[in-house]
Structures
1.
Amino acid sequence: MKVKDIMTKNLIKFKPGQTLHDALEAFTNKNISGAPVVKDGKLLGLITELDVIKVIDIYTPKVHFTSMPHFFLVLAGLKSRKKATELKKKIVAASKLKIEDFMTAEPVTIEEGADIMEAARIIDTYKVNRIPVMHGDKLCGIITRNDIIKSVAKLELSLVKKKK
């Protein structure tokens, strides 16, 4: 099975000048955990929950965002035990950070014609959850760990049914 057969093609994308607030809002409202960052059609990087967690200095296990995007900023302040005024300043400042300042630049990519097992190897080797999928130098999709697991599960189910 090829990457192009299971990748997500209708992508949510960010521009490098968008803010942390924009990323948090999209992660929450679109139920995503990461997305490509593009400029003039060129892939510049990826922005992920992990990038957001790193930028606000939270060193706890990865969790998904709640329905309140500022939740993690508040949590960061609580963990740092700073005064409310300092916390407010941190929230305002962090929400204005530009995505280009904390995204993962030049992410590992895969060609759309590659086998999904190659995508699985890349995910394992680089310890990433998603890989931008390219058609030459053009971004055409994204494949995630979950996409691969679902396709392998479907394949296994079909093989089990054939045995019966």
2.
Amino acid sequence: MQKNVSISDLAQALYTVNRHAKTALKPQHLYWIKKQTIHKLLEEKLATKIGLHFSDHPKFSNQHSTLLVQVGNYYFHIPPSKQDFQELEHLGKLNRNFRNPSSKMSLSQAKRIVYQYIDWHPDENEKPEFQKKSSYYTPSSLGKMEWPPSRKKMGRRKHKQNNKNTSWK
């Protein structure tokens, strides 16, 4: 583990990443770094497997289980391995009354801590995805300095249009 990252900070960072992943439009990367971090913590014996829970969100109407892992004072769910089903107790339904301690860490700080721990660096070639504009996109004129147009500019436009109209007659 990195010298300057405590288990408490890492647990808070995982909590923040997990919380943001639940509401993100594209949560795959956030869930991936959460899973990588927890697996590394388990390998280093800094996290503990507690047991299995039934998932609150069954896939394709089929009940499945998730692995409950404790990191510091926080608990997280990740997909279980086949070995987990053989070695760990099934705890049944998730206790909805239990909550992790709240944390005020920003997502950028949480990602920095997790990236440092798992030693992950984004590709320099990897460009951030920009949201594509709809073909129906109409730019707003709010905040434009030239609105409403001045009469001088309108006068020039009309004069040019009149010259165009008369030049071919």
